[in-house]
Structure formats: structure tokens, C-alpha cells
Amino acid sequence: MKLKTFKSKMTFCMIFTLIFIKYGYGQHNKSNINDADLFFTPNIIAGSTLSDITYRVIALHGDGFADRVTQVPATGTFTFMDSAYPSVIKWHFSARMDGKPPIEDAIGEYRDTAKIQCFNGNCNLMTSASSPFYNPTFWGRPKGKLVAGQTWTVRLDKPWELGPAGQQKVTVVTLDRKNGIIILKREGYGDGPYEGKHDSTAVKKDGKTIMVATKYGKAHWVGQAIFQHGVTISDELLTITPVEINSNSTGTIQAEERQYMSLLQHPDAIHLTKKAPNRGEKS
Fold first, then answer.
1. Of 18, 39, 36, 14, which Cα lies nearest the Cα of 27?
2. Domains of the chain, residue spans
3. CA distances (Å), 140 to each of 41, 137, 237, in order?
4. Which residues of 239-275 are buried (b: 16+ CB within 10 A; e: fewer)?
5. 8 A C-beta contact, residue 123 and residue 129
6. What are the tens digits of pLDDT across the range 211-229?
7. CA distance 204 to 66
């Protein structure tokens, strides 16, 4: 009697187990895994700080005029505040963009998973090529489990900091689930200039500044970023665009514009330093 009872229980358990396996009950169904929460969603603690060192270069090269190079180095530190909403990151921000007046203790916030930045009373869609947090506008928001080699496509609907509207492919280079770290590569194409008005520019020829008309061709950009739990550890991007310039002085020249940027997380808060006194002034 006991043996029959044991066999009946064992048969029932086997059938029940097969049902579980067939329909996915009782196991971690792959379709329910959402790695975006692990890799792309930041967990901000009020009072903590985040510092970045950034660098951007815009260079125009071509025969018949001097290379024109613009450099924009900067450092900045966020100090985070309490937020009533998980999708809103509130902060105080201090930064020094070398060559320009510093920003000191400005108040702002990121909204809608860091896609929108509010600063000085204005809220705008983030069009910066990089930012302190993972931005779905540029990287997308893939669903499900992520694996190395996986790709997805992101459509950029309007010109942005380093390029035109276009389409890019994002690739998972590698990932570390234990530490929430993921490395992503992005590569894209688009026609025309980056954000702003760029139908003319100034170049130098024989020491003289000349205004020339510009016509941007097909841009190509490629770069790689490291994120940890939604925070940008490092990010770099290079955009190369053919540019036709024309004027009475230069004629038509087929030139090339290179834009590149980098963002690197710094381990400590970067404090603003006071301007050094002029010679003869008391410090």
C-alpha cells in the first residue's frame, strides 16, 4: 500500500514537473528577464557626488586653407538631492569650461530616464553626444536578456551635438552582470551637419579670415561607452563628415570635418578653484 502510494506521488510529481517545464511555471522565464533595469537604471543616493572630465574637438581640414581647430575641455561635479520620483534625478552642479565663466552650485534635474535636462528654468531634450547617465535617446532601451554580440537599431530624429539626424547600430561588446557593467559600441550614418546653423563658416587663408559657404555630406560616427548601473564610466565618439566649402577667394574645396569627444568619470569631487591673482595683487 505504501509502495503504491509512493509510486502515485512520484508519478504526480513527474507530471507536474513536465507541466512546469513545458509552460515555464516555476522557472525564470527568459522572456521576463529585463537586463535594462540592471545595466541602464541608476540608483542615486542623496548627498552623493559624481564628477566627470569632458573634452570636445571640432576640426576642419582641407587644401587651400589653414586647419581650423576648436577645443572645449571641461570638468564638472554633480551633488545629488532627494527626489520624490525615481525617474527624476535632482542635483546641484558646479563646472569649469576652460576659457569661459564657471558654473557654481546651479540647480537642475534629469527627467524621463535622463532624456530630458532641466536647467535654469528650462527643460530640453538632451542632444549632447554623452551625459553622466545612460540616455535611451542615443542608446535605445532594449528589452529582455542582453548577451555579447547582440545588436539593435536606434533612430535619431533630429541633429545632435556631433552629428545629423540618422540611424545607428548599437552592439553589446561585453557585459558583467555581477557588477552591473556593460560595454556598448555605437556606429551610425546621417546626411548633413550637426545641430545648429552651419551653412557658412570662417577659415584662414594666407593669414586672412575668409567667410566661406559650407555644404555637409554624409556623416559617419563610431564610438564606445562603458556603463555601470546606468552611470557613464567612460564614453568616446568620433564623427567624420565631408564638407564642401566655397568662396570667391578659395574656390570650391572638398574638406573634411572631424569631431570627437570623450567623457571620463573622475573618482573625486572636482572643486572650483579661485582665479589666480594678477602679478602685484595680494592673494
1. 18
2. 33-43+54-72+129-266
3. 13, 6, 17
4. bebebebebeebeebebebebbbbbbbeeeebeeeee
5. no
6. 999 999 999 999 999 999 9
7. 5
All three cell numbers of 250: 578659395
Stated pTM of the model: 0.84
Kindly report, residue by residue over 153-200, the tens digit of the pLDDT: 999 999 999 999 999 999 999 999 999 999 999 999 999 999 999 999
Cell representation of residue 60: 576642419
Q: How far apart are CA 137 and CA 141, in angstroms?
A: 8
Residue position matching grid coordinates 557658412: 200
Contact 217, 242 (CB under 8 A): yes
Please list, in sequence order, all residues whose beta carbon lies within 8 angstroms of the beta carbon of residue 70, skipping any fewer than 6 positions away. Answer: 57, 58, 59
Radius of gyration from C-alpha coordinates of the chain? 26
Nearest Cα to Cα of residue 40 among 221, 186, 175 = 175
Per-residue pLDDT, 140: 97
Residue carrying the nine cell digits 527624476? 88
Contact 91, 79 (CB under 8 A): yes
Residue 147 corresponds to which cell in the numbers above? 548577451
DSSP state of 272: P
